[in-house]
Amino acid sequence: IPSQPQPPQYPQIPSKPQPPQYPQPPPSPQTPSKPQYPEIPQNPQIPSQPQPPQYPQIPSKPQPQYPEVPQNPQIPSKPQFPQPPQYPQTSKYPIIPPQTPQMPGMHPSSINCDIETNVRVPCGLPDISAAECQARDCCFDGQSCYFGKGVTVQCTKDGQFIVVVARDVTLPHIDLESISLLGEGQNCKSVDSNSAFAIYFFPVSACGTIVMEEPDSIIYQNMMTSSYEVGNGPAGSITRDSSYVLVFQCKYVTSDTSVLSVVAEVEPIIVPSQVSALGPVNVIMRLANGLCMTKGCNEDVAAYTSYYQDSDYPVTKVLRDPVYVEVVLLDKTDPHLVLTLGHCWATSSPEAHTLPQWDILIDGCPYADDRYLSTLIPVDSSSGVQFPTHYRRFVFKMFTFIDYNMEHFRKTVYIHCSTAVCVPRQGFSCEPSCYRKGKRDTEAAAQKKFEPKVVVSSGEIILTASKQ
Questions:
Q1: Which fold has domain 283-463?
Q2: What's the average pLDDT block by block, 10 residues per block, for the chain (468 residues)?
Q3: Which GO terms describe its molecular function (predicted)?
């Protein structure tokens, strides 16, 4: 049996076509974010200033334990001129010892090391060797190293000056309290001192220091000077104090790790050409130069055993040196005659009546307004001369004239005295009365004013630098 026919298959109505697939629109471009710039680097941290080294301590009595000499700090990088240099810590470098302070006419090998133990200032570490001590221009006694009689300048690598000044650096001795630097400030005074030394410790950029630049280095220069006491008289001004000037430098070399210290000393005094001035023939003035040759001898007596000759002039003296003067009456044999001195004074030129002047004797007596009084030296039968009353002797301390602006020294001195011949009689003495004046003394002084007077002068005396 035929199978039942299958129902006809009707065509499928096509489904509604899907809407076309369009490509997705690209997303809107995003606004780029603000570019990230590298951060501005932070200013480098300025290293904290290193602790200043401990300068050498002056020992106190009794024998103290000296502190160790500090280790020199690190070499500084070249500072920004003219700002004070910053000295960051870097690697350690060997330290070059400071150069020897150069003194006029003095070499490092001749530094005077004769210093009392209780005023010595230690130089270097306690276990320093003799070679290291000598390299520092210091003195070594076999056990310890100490500063000698002079000036020592050291430059530390953290930019500090260390200056050690000895009282004996000049003759007469310098007044350590009178020293000053170019500028003033808290650090510009001595940080320690005793009767023989003063220590200065200050930054190289302080106290008026002058800064100079060279292609490969920076130089810090300062100057040390001393003040002096001035005596003012009616016709001139003098001083017996030393005038001290010291220029010193620290040189920082930026091309390597070396640090140098240099000391430049004032030029030595130039001795002028010889000039002599002789007095009248019948009265002469001469300068004595005898020395004590035995222990315990009298220096004033020994001085008049020898004299400067004409060929010895000009005579050179150091400030406060004793100047022994003798005035002699010549060609007279009367033992009753007495040579007298009225006014004795000094000038800076051979002419007796020029200015400036400084009184030495007035009416035969020491000038009372001079701090360093002159001394009359008696002449009697024990003096070894035939007619003692024909001689007058006195001694004064060497000085130098200065201008009224207190700056310029006049280094030549001439001595002048007005002289007279006196005949003593009863109730009248030719000798000056320097301490008490009674009626008779006043009458005698009045009579002397009418005696004929002759002025006699010395040869030239020149102030010279001390010989250490």
A1: Immunoglobulin-like (2.60.40)
A2: 61 60 60 54 48 56 44 44 37 33 37 83 86 84 86 82 83 79 85 87 88 83 80 74 79 65 39 34 86 87 92 91 94 88 92 89 91 91 90 94 73 91 80 64 46 77 71
A3: acrosin binding; structural constituent of egg coat
pTM of the model: 0.49
Q: In b/e form, how buried is each residue of 372-387, taking b as 16+ CB within 10 angstroms? A: eebebbebeeeeeeeb
Rounded distance, CA 382 to CA 267, Å? 46
Q: What is the pLDDT of residue 25?
A: 60
CA 373: distance to chain centroid? Answer: 27
Distance CA 73, CA 158 (A): 6
CA 298 to each of CA 174, 292, 366, 392, 441: distance values in angstroms, whole numbers, following the listed order: 28, 7, 21, 18, 31
Q: Would you say 440 and 257 are in contact if contact means Cβ atoms under 8 Å apart?
A: no
Nearest residue to 173 via CA among 223, 265, 264, 240: 240
Total residue length of the chain: 468
**Which CA distances in Å does 362 have to 82, 140, 340, 430?**
59, 52, 12, 15
Take residue 192 and report the two structure tokens written for it. 């320690």
HEC profile of 108-130: HHHCECCCCHHHCCECCCCCCCH
- Superfamily of domain 108-265, CATH level 4: Zona pellucida, ZP-N domain (2.60.40.3210)
Given a contact cutoff of 8 angstroms between Cβ atoms, the answer to whether 448 and 420 are in contact is yes
How far, in Å, are 25, 86, 207 from residue 80 at the CA level?
Answer: 64, 8, 19
Pairing mode, if any, of strands 315-317 and 461-463? parallel
Instruction: Pull the structure tokens for residue 408.
Output: 């310029």
For the chain, state the CA radius of gyration: 43
The answer to whether the CB of 156 falls within 8 A of the CB of 73 is yes
Predicted local distance difference test score (pLDDT) of residue 361: 94
**What does the domain layout of the chain look like in residue ranges?**
108-265, 283-463
